[in-house]
Amino acid sequence: MSPSKNKVLVVGMDGLRFDRLQAVGAPVLAELMASGAYGTSMLPYGEAGTPRTESPGEVVRKTSEPPAGGRVIRSRTDSGPGWSSIATGAWPDRHGVVDNGFTAPQFQKFPDFLTRAKKARPELNTAAFFSWAALAEHGAFGPAVDHRFVLDGYAIGWAEADKQVAAAAERHLAETDPDAVFVYLGDTDEVAHDLGPHCPEYTAALQTQDAYLGRLLDTVRARPSYARECWTVLVTTDHGHVDEGGHGGVAEEERTVFVIANRLGEHLGGRFLAGPRLVDVGPTVLAILGVAVDPAWDLDGAPLEL
Ligand SMILES: [Zn+2]
């Protein structure tokens, strides 16, 4: 029998606070944690004393000067820096996205993990589904990705966008043969900006996204070739939120992020990962796909031990 084919599904949920996730009960994510491995870490950046971003795409003017000495990563705890770090495996001072303005992205030098996988192994089939169109416009997930499904969450609403993104990803997983897939869900962030992360509406948004994730996993498990495949699932977020809603600053609630990893059909022990970082997501995907990280790439992340 030939070895199983390694495949990866990365699901990003915008502005998802891990403490809220643990508190409110999201059955699919809870099961991924119980049979997988997971942990939290703190983003190594945030702009102290500046106004918090109030909507997903809002650019807030920087006013602070970087402190002196050492490697100081001067960036807001916003979506642009977070998703760019997840995509590239490098921190904002390297990939160049320090707020939601995307004024000087370095995605030629630091391409996303799907683009890197495709370049190393052209036979791989890559796909990305998201509703924050800026990620496509600025190339955080670049044009070399085989299949990009891009909606505008501002235009159609984030909840509706999530529904359509999930449906499109579900079809793709059922009907094609992807090797690496990224799916973005954004309503958690939108609701937290409006109402904060402690309201029933945030719980509902999280549970809706949890249900979409469940459908994606069911679809994967129902693939005719599933018995010959080994699927790793990674779930992460780009930043947290302060209690009253909003992010960009240095509070622990804004800087705390998480990574949940699971290998479908295997038990990873429900163990804690020691400080998994956003920049580890890309290298983890590449390692699973058999693509060695070249030191010349100058990445900050390293593959998680799963
Ligand atoms: Zn965000």
TrEMBL record:
Which Gene3D superfamilies does this one have? Alkaline Phosphatase, subunit A
Q: What Pfam families does UniProt report for this protein, alphabetically?
A: Phosphodiest (PF01663)
The record's GO molecular-function terms, alphabetically, read: hydrolase activity
> Region Disordered: what ranges?
48-70
Note the PANTHER family from the entry.
BIS(5'-ADENOSYL)-TRIPHOSPHATASE, ECTONUCLEOTIDE PYROPHOSPHATASE/PHOSPHODIESTERASE
Q: Protein name, please?
A: Phosphodiesterase
Native source organism of the sequence: Nonomuraea deserti
